[in-house]
Amino acid sequence: MLRISILIFCVVLGAVVGARDSSRDRRPIHASRQLDGIPTFAVDLYKNLVRLATSQAANLAISPFSAEAALTLAFHASNGETKTEISRVLGGASANASDFGQKISSVNVRISPATYTLQTANGLFFDESYELDQANRNRLAQKFVAHIESLDFHGKAEESRQEINAFVATQTHQKINELFTAGSISQETRLVLVNALYFKADWEKPFDGEATKPHPFTLLSGQTKPVPLMYTETTVSYGVIPELRNAQVVELPYKDEAVSMFVVLPDERSSLSEVEDSLTADSLNMALVRMKKQDVHVFLPKFKVSGGSDLVQALRSMGINSAFSSQADFSGISSKQGLQITQVFQQVVLEVNEKGTEGAAATGVQLTLMSLRPDPTQVFRATRPFLYFIRHNQSNSILFFGRVTDPTV
């Protein structure tokens, strides 16, 4: 009997992946039920990546939306315990293909390019020799608006890799040109599922470029280094989060306020690690409810981050286990047995400046033959490590989630 593996690649243009001190608590953070508002999945995925990181790298970022899209495709190709585990980790939000399809449609709603660009696309690439259940294949294509293409993985693995990479590059406006590196697509590959995400938007109120000045930024080590610090005085939603040791949070909307960046700044008497340890979807959602519009002096460093991260262990810690084992059941896409996930990888790049933000994401799934109350005017000065997330407000999708500990790397 042929044994097949699913290899999930998440590549995100929109943020950097770094690592954390291995001395931190490495107990798993388990995904819980889906909440109204910020998804538990997004927070748990971020916290598990922080917990599992093995080195003291500076910045970290992921695209929960792209990871969710890839896992949702895998969910609708699975059955049995595999399906149950993936659903539990996703919080049940993606169990209904129509619901997730509506979320994708919401993200893809036609918007004037003069306002902002936000789009996502799915692709399904299968080996011409492999038998896919036609009904299930059509269901995935229709529900997820997927581009479907037959390739010769067995005879032309390298050409097939280039074809998939070309699809991703087109969908991400040439920001991700090599989702699959040389040799990652082999003769044993039978199916690749891809999600791509691209985002570019100007701030509702841009920062004044002439106000950007070098300013000391305090690193995790306690040392300081000069960074280009942007400044604006504006009326935005602002609050303090008692559950996160009185961290400040500010919402910076993009044009038309359909998408916003939220920046969570630890209190000076606290630390980034203490805030991350206390971080939950509940605490963030409560903060969003408490936030009020008020005048704020906002200081935020310019930053551009990029990198990659393997998500397998994080997803295992969150509760997806059978999908990575010989007990995996992906009969929802093919009657042949032996499908299992072997790798989940995400690569990210994000650039934030005075004008706005640009980011993109791509996720691929490969199946292969294997063996405090504020004052009237607040000051939000992000001159020390902070968290951020970018949310599509209508669907509550977290497009990007990360941390900045050194804006210059």
TrEMBL record:
Q: Where does the Serpin domain start and stop, copy by copy?
A: 43-407
The answer, when asked if Lyase is one of the entry's keywords, is no
Gene3D superfamilies (UniProt xref): Alpha-1-antitrypsin, domain 1 (2.30.39.10), Antithrombin, subunit I, domain 2 (3.30.497.10)
The record, for Pfam families, names: Serpin
* One Gene Ontology cellular component: extracellular space
Give this protein's Gene Ontology molecular function annotations: serine-type endopeptidase inhibitor activity
* Keyword Signal set for record: yes
Q: Which SUPFAM superfamilies match?
A: Serpins (SSF56574)
Where does the signal sequence lie? Answer: 1-18
| UniProtKB keywords | Signal
Looking at the record's lineage, which domain of life comes first? Eukaryota
Family listed: Belongs to the serpin family.
What PANTHER family does the record tag this protein with? SERINE PROTEASE INHIBITOR 28DC, SERINE PROTEASE INHIBITOR, SERPIN
Q: What is this protein called?
A: Serpin B6
